[in-house]
Amino acid sequence: MKPAAKIVLGLTGAASLGVVALLAVPALRGAPDTGLLAWRDPATVARGAVLYASECSACHGGLDGAARDPDAPAPVAPPHDETGHSWKHADYVLFGLTKSGEVAELCLTGTGDAEMPEFAEALEDRQILDVLSYIKSTWPEEVRARQEATNAIYASQNAATRALLEAGGH
User: Cβ distance 77 to 108 under 8 Å?
Assistant: First the structure.
């Protein structure tokens, strides 16, 4: 083999190893964080659980695994567990819908004039993220993985929302 061919082959091999290393390191650390929610953080999840109980469970039902009281009225909004559809949305969408209350009428499962309130005035952005983190922490692993795949598609929107939140401008 000619010296020039050896150099090209060596550089190609080194570049290939570099690409493999770049791809393998994140996989060894776990999936990259493409979302907004700190659902793995116990303190965040605990804060979110308290807020969910006081602000969300009356309409969406509980997420604590307890059996529902059969005499209780049906929730007027879709559940946030794996039987609902929250997990089908990227984090930035969940944040925006919760903050604004928009399009909630499209999600109603009950009857009547129930309407999701805007939480922009009632909860700080951090509290909304805490609640959403708690919700996500209750989903089965396969549901979280599917939602993370959605987050990966919308990583730039999640990043833009994160930047706005960090700048205090959302």
Answer: yes
Copy the structure tokens of residue 128: 């909304």
Chain segment 99-120, per-residue pLDDT in tens? 887 755 555 544 445 566 667 7
Residues whose CB is less than 8 angstroms from the CB of residue 5 and which lie 6 or more positions away in sequence, other chains included = none
Longest Cα separation, the chain: 84
Contact 4, 109 (CB under 8 A): no
C-beta separation of 158 from 35 below 8 A: yes
- Show the tokens assigned to 133: 């983190």
Closest by CA to 55, choosing from 143, 140, 120, 107, is: 120
Class of domain 33-166 as given by CATH? mainly alpha
Task: For residue 105, give the DSSP letter.
Answer: G
Handedness of CA 88, 167, 44, 141 (dihedral sign): positive
CB-facing half-sphere around the CA of 169: CA atoms within 13 A: 5
**For the chain, what are the domain ranges?**
1-30, 33-166
Span 64-95, pLDDT tens digits:
665 555 666 666 677 888 888 888 899 999 99
